[in-house]
Amino acid sequence: MLALFLFKWGIRCRQQRLLNLEDLAVLTTSRRSVKQRHCHPASPKKPPRMAGWWPSSVCFPRASVRHGFNLLAPYYHMMSIEDRQRMAASLLERLAQRKVFFTTSWDDGLRTDLPLVELGQKHRIPMMLFVCPRHPNGKAMTSGELRQVANGAEIGSHTLTHTPIDHCSPAVAREEVLAGRVFVEGTLGRPVPHFALVGGRYSSANLNAIAALFDSVRSTHAFNFFRPAHGALIKPSLQVRFDGRTHPLKMLWEAFMQLSFAGLLRVASRVAVGQRQHDMLAIIPEICAAPEIYLHLWGHSEEIEECDAWRDLESIFSVLNAINGVPMTYSEFIAAKQ
Predict the structure, then answer these.
(1) Which residues, listed in sequence order, are joined to residue 218 by a DSSP beta bridge?
(2) Which residues make Cβ contacts (< 8 Å) with residue 66, sequence separation at least 6?
(3) What is the CATH number of the domain that holds 276?
(4) What is the pLDDT of residues 278-336, one digit of tens each?
(5) Torsion angle (degrees, nearest 10) of CA 69, 72, 73, 74
(6) Containing domain of residue 265, as a range?
(7) At 41, is the pLDDT very low, low, confident or very high (cuts 50, 70, 90)?
(8) Category of 161 on φ-ψ map: left (φ > 0), alpha (ψ -120 to 50) or beta
C-alpha cells in the first residue's frame, strides 16, 4: 500500500507540473556530489523523467514545500564539509541528554581498510573488519596487513571467496563459511567468533546452519536503533555509502519494520529528496525516542576510497564524538541489551 501511495503521489505531482525540490536546494552528501550536482531552473518543456516507477526527481507542490519540507531547504544548499558537520552536530545536540552507544563494522577486508583503521584510531572509533581472504577483485589484505590492522580493530569472517549463501545448499554454505573462518583464525592465531553475510543475503536454512558456528551473524538491515541482536541476526542501524544509495523501497520497508509511524514519515520525507542512510544521522532524535540508542554504522572502505570520501567519513566520526556517545567494541555492543 505504501508503494502504491508513493507511486500515485509521484505521478500526480508530475502531471500537475509541480515544483521540483531540487530547484530549491542541492542535496550534497560528499565533496564529489558537490562538484557534480548543480542547480538549474526547471524547464517546462522537459519535466522530470521517470526511472521505472520511481521518479528520478520527485516533485512536490509549492505549498507542500513551504508547509511540509520548509525545514529541509536551509540545510541542503551547497555546503562545505565543515558546515555540514556543524549542522549535524547542532541537530544531534539533543542526544547529549540521552545515552548513545555506538560501534562500526566494515566489510570485505580489502587493503583500503588500512587507512580506515588509522582514521578510526585517530577519532577513537571502534571497528570490526569482516574479512574475505580471497576476494575476487584481488585486493584483499595480505596476511601481514591483516595482522597489522588486527592491532587496532576486531576481525570477523566474511566467507572465503565473497560468495553469497542464499542460493546454495546448507552444506555448501557451511563449507564456504568455515573455510573463511579457518583461514582468518590461522592467520591471526586466535578465534574469530563473528560473521557478516555477503550482501546481507541468506535463506532460513542456511542462516540456521551458520548461526551455530558463530557467536553472531551480522545482516544489512537498517534503522535498528534498539537492541542489536534479533534472534540469530545482528541488525545494524545505517550504512555509510557515498557512491549511491539503497533502493528507496528497501529503505522504506526497513523503516516500516523498525520505526514508529512518525519515524517512518520522517524517513520517507528524506528518502523522497534523495538522501542516503547515513544522512539519517541528523534526524535520529526525531525517529528514535528511546532513552538509550544503539547506533551501528557499517560500510565498505573501498567505496570510500573510490569516491575520495575520506573527509566526509571523518566528519561523520567527528559527529559521533560531538554527541558524547559511548564507544563500544563490536563484541561489547552486540552483547548489550540482549
Answers:
(1) 196, 234
(2) none
(3) 3.20.20.370
(4) 989 888 888 988 889 999 999 999 999 999 999 999 988 988 887 778 999 999 999 88
(5) 130
(6) 97-335
(7) very low
(8) alpha
